[in-house]
Design a protein that fits this description.
Layout lengths: L2 H36 L6 H33 L15 E4 L2 E5 L4 E5 L2 E6 L4 H6 L7 E4 L2 E8 L1
Parallel strand pairs: 2-4
Antiparallel strand pairs: 1-2, 1-6, 3-4, 5-6
């Protein structure tokens, strides 16, 4: 498998993971809204109000998670498999002596068919060190010397 195929696999997996986050958040919003709308006021008024407040908080959290997932989805949609990567920039798959990094969204370790990479944002600590580097360069990160083998 060549590096471009590997990048395509990672991008597909990241899209799938983000879509799962969107679906989970939407499902949570729907079920919380349903619960909130069907809750009836009981004789224990304070208990009812506390329950509604907790549902409102859950709804706000789910909405926040949905917005974050939609932003991640938008960031992934900007990545082109045909982009020319002579330097490390957003959308690059970086093969190093210490592991593979996909400069995309911060989701952490992703494993596809036994191939592993770290999906990181360009603003992460390692992302900031990698950005702008070129193939063959050595960078230091947290006391480790990392060689950049390929940029796809």
């Amino acid at each position: 498998m060549n590096y471009l195929e590997l990048k395509e696999l990672f991008l597909t997996e990241l899209n799938s993971l983000v879509e799962e986050k969107v679906n989970t958040a939407n499902s949570s919003i729907y079920s919380t809204t349903e619960s909130k709308n069907t809750a009836t006021k009981s004789t224990a008024g304070d208990k009812h109000e506390t329950g509604r407040a907790m549902m409102e908080r859950e709804l706000a959290l789910s909405n926040s998670q949905l917005q974050k997932a939609l932003m991640q989805k938008n960031e992934l949609s900007k990545i082109s498999l045909e982009m020319d990567c002579t330097t490390i920039k957003p959308g690059a798959l970086v093969i190093t002596s210490q592991g593979n990094y996909f400069i995309s969204i911060g989701l952490g370790r992703v494993n596809v068919n036994g191939n592993e990479c770290y999906a990181i944002s360009g603003g992460s600590p390692i992302g900031l060190v990698l950005m702008g580097s070129k193939k063959g360069q050595h960078i230091n990160f947290q006391g480790r010397n990392i060689e950049i083998i390929a940029i796809i």
